Amino acid sequence: MKPVIAEKKPAVVSLTEGEKYFFCTCGQSSKQPFCDGSHKGSEFTPMAFTADKSGDAYLCQCKHSAKKPYCDGTHKKLED
Ligand code: FES
Fold it and tell me: For the chain, which residues score pLDDT lower than 50?
């Protein structure tokens, strides 16, 4: 099963060093790029990660990045 493409661009979010976040991997959350529980009943689970520095981060919303939760530019190669 493929994740839903929430958006074909990253979300710029302000992260706090040492804080734990839950990144949406299914693409169905309405709180992109974070999990809102919408994955329930699917094979997807959120990806927990801890920010290693404070400041703005570009988090993947196309859900196809190889460097999740971060955008790696893969969204530019996706078909419509
Ligand atoms: S938004 Fe997914 S790789 Fe950029």
Answer: none
Which ligand 1 atom is nearest residue 7's CA? 1
Pocket of ligand 1 (CB under 6 A): 9-10, 60-62, 64-65, 71-75
Q: Where are the domains of the chain?
A: 1-80
pTM above 0.85, yes or no: yes
**Cβ within 8 Å of residue 5, ≥6 positions away:** 27, 61, 62, 63, 64, 75, 78
Cα(22) to centroid of ligand 1, in Å? 17
